[in-house]
Amino acid sequence: MGDNNKKVEDSKQLLIFKLGEEEFGVDILQVKIIEKLDQEITRVPKAPVFVEGVINLRGDIIPIVDLRKRFGLTTRPLGYDTRVIIVEINNSQVGMMVDSVSEVLRIDAADVEEAPKITKGVDAVYINGVAKTNDRLIIILNLDRALSAEEAKELKEMNMNA
Amino acid sequence: MDISQYLNVFMDECREHLQTLNQVLLELEHNPDNSSLLDQIFRAAHTLKGASATMGFNKMANLTHAMEDVLSKLRSKEVNVTPEIVNILFEAVDLLESLANSIASGKEEDIEINGIVQSLRALTVMQPTPISAQPERRTNLQLRYTEIEKEPIVQALKEGTKLYHIEVTLSENCLLKGVRVFMVLREIEKFGIIVKSAPTLKDLEDEKFDFRFVLGVLSSSAVEEIVNPISNIVEVEKVVCEEIELNNIPIEKRIQTVESEDRSKISSVQTVRVDIKKLDVLMNLVAELVISRSRLESISAAIQNKQLDEVLEQVGRLTLELRDNVFKARMVPVETVFSRFPRLIRDLSRELKKEIDLEIYGGETELDRTVIDEIGDPLVHIIRNAADHGIESAEERLQKNKPEKGKIILKAYQEGNGVVIKIIDDGRGFDIERVKEKAVSQGLVSREALALMKDEEILEFTFLPGFSTAKQITEVSGRGVGMDVVKTKVNALGGFIKINSKFGEGTTIEIRLPLTLAIIQTLMVQLGNEVYAIPSGYIDQIISINKKDIKQVRQQDVFTLRGEIVPLIRLQHVLDTPGALNESFEELDVVVLKTGDRLVGCVVDGLMKQQDVVIKSLGDYLGTVKGIAGATILGNGKVALIIDIRAVA
Which of A92, B124, B372, B574 is the residue whose CA sits 20 to 30 A from B387? Predict the structure, then answer.
């Protein structure tokens, strides 16, 4: 992880959302839909801690991941701006619960840098890079890793051994 | 050409034709002189040949080609139908089945076919049976007219138009016969009117003919003007045109009634092939509609508008009707599974040298497609067992004053919310004493406990893995996979299996299956402050017990029910439900569940209502969650989880 200035991504559109004051981005192509959380989440016993439960999205059962819990941030109650971003990973749909969704940004490849090991409290294994644009710092998530429990653990161990 | 997208269609058709082949071959074995059966077999083999060649499955194409050669000799009566030939044809069909399976599993055709192709070839060069010199087989392609059809023709002939019978032969390599037919018809329509064809125009369009067909055409053109343009069409091998004189018009005699009856039977049910996934989507949408309707209803209840109520009532009726029809669309008659058993019994009787009659009742009983797909193998296993271990040899049967022929009855009927399938044999039945002995020697039960058990309960031991009372392991059954596999499968389908047997008289195995896997009846219960659904199929009864009656055995709460000690569990602990476990009352509501023959009591915090629910998976992301069988959407749009009884109880 020596080369901090290496360009890691091509130009792409990102959906920007917030957890606390931090801004995160996910590739818009992976986003299916953004939903307001207007129904109760049904808890699923024995599911991983960061899985809040499941909701009914027009007839489909969708698991909801609380990204705050996932990243080990302090949890906070649902607010008016709380949104669920439904993304598709490995052919299944997952909802990510975030504090708020702000906009869609086009990010040039030149503005993206590889992430340092720990970025604002989020482990680098979940991150594809950091985009700097107009004094904003946007953390670009690697969804496949951020939403998968096992892989994250394995990667962490690998990095520690390296 | 990328053929993968056609593979599913091909496989479906392939299975259908193989089934036809099996069925009709069986019939042919009993009625070797029925030529319409031969025609059906030929058609199926021929279509398979064409389809497999188009898809590039050469082995299958070669094999069907060899079959076709034999069949056409049989049709032309050059060779007579003998049991030997039928056997070889059966073997060929079996091989086709394995080929089809290997294609379906993507392994391509790693199966040796040369042996069977050679035996088929050998049949075609066999001594032609000396039989009264039949005129050529073209006889069956003659055009005959009914009186009604004849009338306008006579009229036309009197006016100077001519009637031609045009026999067209297509090249044997012709793949798109329908297209060629179309081109021929288009040519003819330029100069004449087609009054009749053999086979019918519809069959021609559907490619239901070999390579020849005859058309009756009214035209004022000369013979050459008709023949030449048709012969110029690609893949038309031969065109014969014959002018028919006024007093030579052939009249149809009413002999072919049998065949026409057959045909009307086949065409009376019109079907469309639909991907089961589309039906799943449709069902989801209907379920959504039902949910939205109940939300509308609760809104309307608050508004209290009479007109709105009326409309809603109608919408309610319509949605229910829609739902029922979508369910029906997924239903398939059990016939589709049963139809392979006559063949199975035939093979088994030969192999075991026992004469066995199979009687099938209730083939029209319908089950959900998903259940149908899964139930075939367990049934095969049970029938094999019945034939092998159940039915005695002919001598033994005669000694016991039983009819020489053994009998297996397969029965299906609907009962309540499910379907019952019974497999009844009149064989030797289970020797209860042997089952007892075996159960004790395997350490499954003590002699004292056995003495208290009913015969039915004792027979349950035969469902345990590794439990077999068969004295000898035969080729047919007893190859390690036992009744335990059958039972597991039936249970996995949400069904139950029961065994009943009288020593010396026979065995009845009863399988109860839910109508559909997608919908189950559940009891909604409250655990903590959450709502869960318990599949009603597992519920033995609901009782309320007094706290004083709860005893402790080895740190486990138990209570007595009908003199039996039943463990009492708290699902709230198993599922970590939040909200205090409210046991301040003296009386507790307990749902008694039955899994297999085991009873378990579950304390619940509230009983809600019985409800039919559509089962939905939790999805790949969560995968299998222990204790949860799936989820369902309630009338208020919320999700409730369905408890996996086998995992928690």
Answer: B372
